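Archive entry. Fields below.
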Amino acid sequence: MRVTNMYMVTLAQQANEKNQSTVAQLSQEVSSGLAVSKPSDNPTAWIEAQRAKVEQTINDGTGQALQGGLEKINATDGALSTLSQLVSQAQSLAVEGASASITSDARADAAQQVTGLLQSALAAVNTKDVDGTYLLSGTAVNTAPFDATGTYQGNSATTSVASSANGTSQDSLAGSALDAGTNSVNIIQTLGDLATALSGNDVTGIQAQLANLSTAVSQLATTRAQVGGMMSALQSAQTAQQSLSTTLTTSISGLVDADAVQSASNLAQASTALQVSQAVTSKVLALLQPSS
Amino acid sequence: MSNLLSLLDVGAAGIAAQNAGVAVATNNVANANTQGYSRETVDFESLVGPPALSGVLTSDPTRYASELLNGQARTANGSLSMSTSSASALSGLEDSMTAGSTIDTQLAALFASISQANASPTDSTQRQAVVSSLQNVVTSVHDEASAVSQAQQQANGRIDDNVTQASQLASQLAAANAQVAQNDDPTALDQRDQIAQQLTALVGGQARVDSDGQMRFVLDGGAVLVDGSHAASLQTTPNTTTGFSDVEVVDGNTTRDVTQQIGGGSIGADLAFRDGTAATAASQLDQLAYDIGTSFNNVSTQNAALDGTTGHAMFTAPTQVAGAAAALEVDPSLAADSSNLALAAAGASSGDNTGGLALFALSSQTVASGGTKTLTDASLDILGNVGSAVSQANDDVTRDQTLTSNLSSLQDSLSGVDTNEELANLSKFQNTSEAMTKFVSTVNDMLTNLIQSL
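PREDICTED_STRUCTURE:
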């Protein structure tokens, strides 16, 4: 094959261009740490990584929703805990008030204490979430669950938050659980009725409310257990969400990140190849000098 | 004496022949870097005359060029031009479509904001965050649709420019044919090859030299652009349906639409890009925008806003798929008031989030592309298709570069000028010329002596 001057120059030039392009590409890879930065770098890997990023963003949103749900359930549990303590105190006062040995003045004092407990209980069941909505009114979140007479104003609906792409976890408790029903009493009204019986020195009435208070204690225990179950489910969902986030981060990294050691090694090799081709070009040009 | 005089003729012919060789070698060296130049050589032919006199004769210089090789190189060059233009156009589209936040990213952010709003359905801040996310989705759809539209417009502009240039080259090719017909000048042949190569780089097609020595240029699909000294012209005409230019071959009173037939060169690349990849991306974006608007509205209108009313849309209702991407907007009443976001079930209280959960469920439902893909997967497919096209085009460039380089080296091996070789030829011709000069001088001396002795 005849080898002309132009062919030698063209060959050297092509080698330089190719090596320079490789060095530029590898430099970009080493400096960014990414082997896949745009779809054309590796369409399959890019789509998979982008799909994982989408899932991660949605998963992060789910995580925040779960956190919000947990805070709501924690606040609900706090309100129920307070209510339980208040009911226990009322129960003690009722036991004392039902005793035949105490005076009517003592019952009047106890009535005042129970009235105070009633106000605290009303405050507890009408607790608001951080966004200003009522926790225990079901989905009627802008209505106070219990009015001053203890009548439940909310509904029995509950809400859930997405715990995954296809699952949900309950994140609210309707105050109807504290209202009268089968095997349950209206706890607020029970406290009010106790205060009335105490102030009226009505021993029979006090004894009747003792039975209701016992039911209320049991009712609250059941309700708190239910809330505990919700909390546990939300925490499990949150753990799964965090685990998925870690998995997705690892997956994305595996798909698009460059192998730092391999990239650096490739860059060193490409740089050497470029230097060699530049030296060859220099030699070729020297050979083509008229003086030589 | 007559024989001696004849020897002078032999010497003169020899000197003239060597001078011709020097001229050809010098011309080769002078054109060593001329693109498309084919080297020439002088062929010496020995003459034997009666009874014993001989001499040398030079014919026209021989041009070292292979029409077969040139044809292959033109085809390869047209292919390289097409793949290079395709890669450039597609890379530009890919860059502009991924320059901002992509649709899939914004859809993911929308679903995340809906998920958060579901934890506090009446919270105006969370509702406003959802509305902002909707606006971001709309912006990303507009941005990607605009990128595709601009890329199509730019390709169309290049097609207009290149068609004008191709038409001029066709005229030049016909003129070169006419010149070759008059005088088989090697320079004219080189120029004709160069023009044919440039034309092929623009429109692909085939240029062949027939037995009459005339080059004919035929476009893919059979339309004859150049036949000998006659050239048809190329022109672009606006297509009233697409708004883009159609390419036509005009030959006398006959006009032929070749838009669908040009499958090579940079014009073929831009046509394939404008009417193929970019057009597909545009229609996929329209379909995606239609699916986004329809699916969200279907859920939203069935659920209740903060005030309990139903029938609230999230996007302006798309009327048709065509143009849906550009037309997609957040519903004005929702954009103005986030309380119109329907997160509650119809008839439920404001704290209900059943509607919000239904909106979130769209993240995993196959509501796009005729019910075969999720919205995010459909949006990723659009970018993935463009990315695959870029990757394929880059591979094509590498392949075509290798083929072109190989053919170019073969062409250079045959037709290229090697200055070392030419310098050696020059020395050879110079030495021979000096020898012939000495020969003539000797014969002349012999004649002088003979005349003086008479």
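CURATOR_NOTE: The first helix of chain B runs from residue 2 to 30.
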